[in-house]
Amino acid sequence: MKHFQTFALIEAVARSGSMRKAAEDMNLTASALNRRIRGFEAEFGSPIFERIPGGVRLNPAGEMVLHHYRMSKSDFSRVQSQVADLSGERRGHVRIACSQALLPYFLPEQIAKYRAEHPGVTFTVKVRDRAQAEQELASYASDIALVFEPVYLVDFEVLELVPQQVHAILRSDDPLAARKELRLWECLDAPSVAPDAKYGVRHLLEFAARRLGRSLSPILETESFELIRHYVLHERAIGFQIPIGLQAPLDGRLAFRPISKKDVSPGSLILGQLRGRTLPVASARFAMQLAAALHRE
Amino acid sequence: MKHFQTFALIEAVARSGSMRKAAEDMNLTASALNRRIRGFEAEFGSPIFERIPGGVRLNPAGEMVLHHYRMSKSDFSRVQSQVADLSGERRGHVRIACSQALLPYFLPEQIAKYRAEHPGVTFTVKVRDRAQAEQELASYASDIALVFEPVYLVDFEVLELVPQQVHAILRSDDPLAARKELRLWECLDAPSVAPDAKYGVRHLLEFAARRLGRSLSPILETESFELIRHYVLHERAIGFQIPIGLQAPLDGRLAFRPISKKDVSPGSLILGQLRGRTLPVASARFAMQLAAALHRE
DNA sequence: TTTATGCGGTGCAAAAAATGCACCGTACCT
DNA sequence: AGGTACGGTGCATTTTTTGCACCGCATAAA
């Protein structure tokens, strides 16, 4: 939208820390950009950038301005979306920040389902860890978040919460695969393939292991859940993941077994939005669909 | 602010119901205005005005756009005010909607007191009845409201509440003036001068009279509290008012006596703002001063 | 029914605003 | 000391906005 143009320029400058770089990003010359910034500052009544050697940086006033911009922009697009909705168009764009575990099965299925009913709606999916996901909401960069074991929960409004028990991922020919449920110490005895420390699954495991006086010493530690799933096919090892990210492949070479609740307490997969915010129609409806689907999980 | 210009034009058109009139108000030609409106509608994706014979009218989409604008504008000026504040300037503008009773003594004193400390702050005072005052807040036309016995209280956040007993206004030579406190039936026997039905004082009196099986039959009914105060000097009659709007004139010709709480229950004088809104610095500080002053009443 | 008035909308030329280019002074880094 | 990259500015150029004149249309008065 045109009336936000100056703010968009400000945001670009803030992001790149340099007027010239921002000017290039936004397809105009540094001089024009410079004048717009200075024009805004004059009109606003106070500088919003601190001029530092090598570039510029937002000052506190600028931070406030930028926050105002992001709020306004998001509210405006909400209005736009609601208007489109009441004219029966069912258009819109949904921005989601989610944990990795939702990528292989849950989200693609849900998005496809939604788009089957509303082909005019488009999606942006950002993969974020639990801390970043909340940041995404707070800066109005995403509309809804779907994360496992979020951390702060400030300004985070829970729309749906579903407990997820940590599961072990192992080869189906592994002796342990014969069991219905595994105990944690059984898993700790085997070589393990674990997600990075920033993930909720790892956190739950470490906590539970410490309670047993043991510790997790993975032979492979990674940020990629996909790598975990595939690695256990190549070496006898145990991976960990929550069930929503798991689905038995057709060839039957992998098995998933829950770890006993006596050892590892279930974590929460949480669907949420920024507290107090009114979402655009498409996002709100999609969030409702997600909530219903999670409820059935 | 320049980036709100198009919205300001939209607001002007909505207010006057005509592009040509609005164009004149905003000092540009109808053609330019027309193009800006159409340009906005195109960019927005939907018409916001309904073209009717004789002019235009906002459609529901337009209502939403206008509401977004008023919110954004108010938030932007809050940011501006906070920035000015943190640079130590103490500038700003406070917009108040209040009941008539506050005009003679309370508000002028409070405003003068505030301006003595912060000469850079200016004020707008709108006199509104209790229903209109809440409307003022909801449309972001005023920052704070100070009203007697507000009606709806939806989206109205109470900052301070002070009970006010209805007082009778009479000539000091009236026999009843000898009493410390009056009973309602005494007042009903005398000719009365009452505020209009939309005011809280009248409402409380009617309610109390009905409880006694009596009714108020004023010889003079008016919207002007000032007229009430002055009329009782000319004919033996009883006026009604809350004490915050009363202060004995120097010549001692008027007397004010509370009506017994046994007959008329006290009403509430309420200071409030729009629920959930963050006020500009000056308004917030002035509201705090008002709250403190009311607390002492 | 005719006429008159006022409305929104449009083509075109003039005015205003934003932009691009070339250049300045300055602070930092090598 | 020299090189580089930064923000800022004067001026010609381009883009956008505006004003004027005018159209078609609907309502209201003659």
UniProtKB/TrEMBL annotation, chains A, B:
Organism: Salipiger mangrovisoli
PROSITE patterns reported for this sequence: HTH_LYSR (PS50931)
InterPro entries assigned: HTH-type_LysR_regulators, LysR_HTH_N, LysR_subst-bd, WH-like_DNA-bd_sf, WH_DNA-bd_sf
Domain named HTH lysR-type: residues: 1-59
Family listed: Belongs to the LysR transcriptional regulatory family.
Alphabetical keyword list: DNA-binding, Transcription, Transcription regulation
Protein name in the entry: LysR family transcriptional regulator
Keyword Transcription included in the entry's annotation: yes
Lineage: Bacteria, Pseudomonadati, Pseudomonadota, Alphaproteobacteria, Rhodobacterales
Stored PANTHER family: HTH-TYPE TRANSCRIPTIONAL REGULATOR YBHD, LYSR FAMILY TRANSCRIPTIONAL REGULATOR
